[in-house]
Recover the amino acids of this structure.
């Protein structure tokens, strides 16, 4: 796969023959579609930032991504294969990345991968800072460095969480409209305006309840005067440098709290808690559109150094992204799904030459009664994308919670059933998963790399089914099926009949038209 490696040269080194990261216990592996640049990525190149997640002096670069779960984790059944996710991990600047499930978040349905890649670090950082500050709805908030990519998200987040007055700063008059677009009520250009005076004017002389600082440097000395008595100042970033002068008397007399925060020294457990805290209120606000991502520019993998220079220039307004949407040169050779992707097997499907003889054999094994449908022709049936008039005899019966299905094609129209028999096989051809949210399962299967061999409907649009081209050996084809309408009713009758069967009347012939009823 393609990957950017840090620590070898002053800039990242691009490699296109890096091994796909091997799975680790509990981890998710994600196919990265887009990854975002952060100041921390540049600081790591400079050697001034070394987070706990960084594995060594030479390291896989990148820490923020959006993509699709390629291999799931038993510790995160909420993220099955094919789930669209965004998150934080080392090694995000690559076609594939390993992730701690605790640092992964679902992407809202209406959001693109590129938009999602702009959010995880900023949301986690700013929400954590507000939490540490004791922020509550109605508080006024000052965001210093509002036109940084993280500052723009901070403005939107504070408003989404119910902040009263949000004041944001910039050092560029041209960027002030971006602060308003993000949701700021008041904007201040610190190159031409006195920060404390402007804040006090906007808050009736009181000062703000919470100050979030992304700049540091000499401007930091003015923050106590802009923050109310008993208020809180949180330093998050130090773009203007770590050094400052501070009047401790002012801090003490105003009885303010001063908090410093960083992700670099936090353990995976701590980072997992910070990301997990986003689920309650922040992600719903994102899904509702109250927090809007802002993209500055998207660069292809081959122009990663140009992306870094764009970030160094301080001209960006919003996130700078690297795109991996064109995909790796080769897909991994282990794309088989895990159990929690499809759910539990609900049916075993047999394809045979003689359905009556097969039914007789199962009855002798104590399985029945059988519901037999002759000459069934699925609606809208296609084989490898082309219409087919395939017809079949079908019989179903239950053994406990597992349904047994027997199919015999009755014409020469193309189907995977006919392929199975013509290959010299007979017996178990597929196992099926049923879902009341068929479209979601269908979409996730396609996103995970599965291909449809045949599909159609039984009993209308609530009776869809699809057979995936999954065979590793005969009998391992996967069927996914919509459990709705008349088909769901029939399957429930079949199960109830098996529970009460006394061995008599082993075969019930029913009209296929029943599937179109109700």
């Amino acid at each position: 796969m393609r990957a950017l490696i840090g620590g070898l040269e002053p800039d990242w080194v691009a490699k296109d023959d890096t091994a796909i990261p091997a799975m680790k216990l509990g981890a998710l592996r994600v196919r990265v579609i887009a990854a975002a640049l952060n100041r921390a990525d540049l600081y790591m190149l400079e050697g001034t930032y070394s987070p706990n997640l960084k594995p060594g002096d030479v390291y896989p670069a990148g820490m923020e991504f959006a993509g699709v779960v390629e291999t799931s984790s038993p510790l995160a059944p909420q993220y099955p294969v094919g789930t669209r996710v965004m998150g934080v991990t080392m090694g995000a600047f690559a076609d594939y990345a390993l992730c701690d499930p605790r640092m992964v978040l679902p992407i809202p349905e209406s959001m693109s991968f590129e938009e999602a890649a702009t959010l995880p670090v900023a949301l986690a950082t700013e929400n954590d800072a507000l939490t540490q500050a004791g922020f509550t709805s109605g508080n006024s908030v000052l965001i210093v460095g509002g036109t940084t990519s993280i500052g723009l998200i901070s403005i939107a987040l504070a408003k989404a969480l119910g902040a009263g007055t949000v004041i944001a700063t910039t050092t560029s008059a041209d960027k002030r409209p971006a602060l308003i677009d993000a949701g700021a009520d008041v904007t201040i250009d610190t190159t031409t305006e006195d920060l404390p005076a402007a804040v006090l004017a906007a808050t009736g002389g009181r000062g703000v309840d919470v100050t979030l600082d992304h700049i540091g440097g000499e401007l930091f000395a003015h923050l106590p005067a802009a923050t109310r008595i008993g208020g809180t100042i949180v330093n998050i970033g130090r773009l203007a440098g770590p050094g400052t002068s501070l009047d401790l008397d002012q801090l003490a007399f105003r009885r303010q709290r001063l908090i410093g925060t960083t992700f670099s020294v936090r353990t995976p457990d701590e980072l997992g808690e910070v990301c997990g805290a986003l689920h309650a209120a922040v992600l719903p606000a994102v899904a509702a559109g109250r927090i809007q991502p802002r993209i500055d520019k998207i660069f292809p993998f081959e122009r990663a150094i140009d992306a870094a220079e764009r970030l160094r220039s301080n001209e960006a307004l919003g996130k700078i992204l690297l795109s991996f949407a064109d995909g790796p040169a080769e897909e991994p050779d282990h794309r088989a799904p895990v159990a929690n992707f499809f759910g539990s097997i609900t049916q075993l499907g047999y394809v045979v030459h003689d359905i009556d003889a097969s039914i007789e054999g199962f009855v002798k094994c104590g399985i029945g009664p059988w519901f037999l449908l002759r000459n069934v022709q699925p609606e809208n049936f296609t084989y490898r994308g082309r219409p087919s008039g395939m017809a079949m005899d079908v019989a179903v019966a239950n053994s406990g919670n597992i349904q047994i299905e027997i199919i015999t094609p009755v014409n020469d129209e193309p189907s995977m059933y006919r392929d199975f028999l013509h290959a010299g096989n007979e017996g178990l051809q597929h196992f099926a998963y049923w879902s009341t949210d068929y479209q979601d399962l269908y979409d996730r299967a396609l996103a995970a790399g599965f291909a449809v061999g045949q599909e159609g409907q039984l009993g209308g649009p609530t009776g869809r089914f699809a057979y995936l081209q999954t065979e590793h050996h005969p009998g391992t084809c996967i069927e996914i099926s919509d459990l709705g309408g008349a088909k769901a009713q029939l399957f429930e009758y079949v199960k109830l009949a098996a529970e009460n069967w006394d061995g008599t009347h082993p075969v019930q012939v029913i009209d296929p038209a029943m599937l179109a009823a109700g």
